[in-house]
Design a protein that fits this description.
Distance between the termini: 51 Å
Order of helices and strands: HHHEHHEHHH
Structural class: mainly alpha
Helix content: 55-70%
Number of strands: 2
Shape: globular
Radius of gyration: 18 Å
Number of helices: 8
């Protein structure tokens, strides 16, 4: 059976995404293990719900990688790819930190904030749909829904998750990890915007009327 150009592009896209999908699957396994541990210890319900939502989110991302459209344009060079990889992997630094002993109020605040961020991320990822990507690439231009408010709502939701989870680990190292996570997203957003502007000339007008991450601030 002859494979046309579109099929070749899709197969190549899937092949290059295998490490990313493996990372998502690893994250799903980690959350399921954490859920089992919390159930055995009669853990906090909000924390369990956060882990369940994370399983749903990572499963959704895996599906979107499989069904997404091939990229029409990709950022050139190693730096854009490095920014994408670092942006994805850096939050896992928290897992290497010792856990903090939280008061009941702080435990509720931490879990509720993380859960809010994950639910928001699920909604935004669903809206993004087949345009989802990790590396700075252009698939299609999405400017409606949450993307009419800020240019990177999914990154904002993920940072809310990290902010919520940060309190569960020892300070000041968790604050340092949070700072590095935020810092890593800046070049990632820059490269993504540049490739979108190259692929879609109308992106410049869209960027002029929307904030990058925080309305009225940044």
């Amino acid at each position: 059976m002859r494979v046309n150009a579109a099929q070749k592009a899709k197969l190549y896209d899937l092949a290059t995404a295998i490490p990313m999908m493996a990372w998502f699957v690893l994250g799903i396994g980690g959350s399921l293990l954490r859920i089992t541990q919390m159930l055995d210890a009669h853990g906090d319900v909000l924390a369990i719900c956060s882990q369940l939502a994370n399983v749903a989110f990572l499963s959704l991302l895996t599906l979107l990688v499989i069904i997404r459209c091939p990229a029409v344009r990709k950022a050139r060079g190693l730096l854009p790819r490095g920014a994408g990889i670092v942006g994805v992997l850096l939050p896992s630094v928290f897992l290497a930190l010792p856990r903090a002993k939280l008061t009941p109020a702080m435990a509720i605040f931490s879990s509720a904030t993380a859960l809010l961020g994950i639910i928001s991320a699920i909604f935004i990822a669903c809206w993004l749909g087949r345009s989802f990507g990790i590396m700075p690439q252009a698939r299609s231009l999405v400017t409606q829904g949450p993307y009419s408010v800020v240019r990177h709502p999914l990154y904002l939701a993920e940072l809310i998750v990290v902010f919520g989870g940060m309190w569960q680990f020892d300070y000041p190292w968790s604050f340092c990890a949070m700072f590095l996570t935020i810092t890593a997203q800046i070049p990632r957003m820059h490269y993504e915007e540049r490739v979108l502007m190259e692929a879609f000339p109308s992106y410049r007008d869209y960027a002029d009327r929307t904030a990058r991450l925080l309305p009225g601030i940044y």
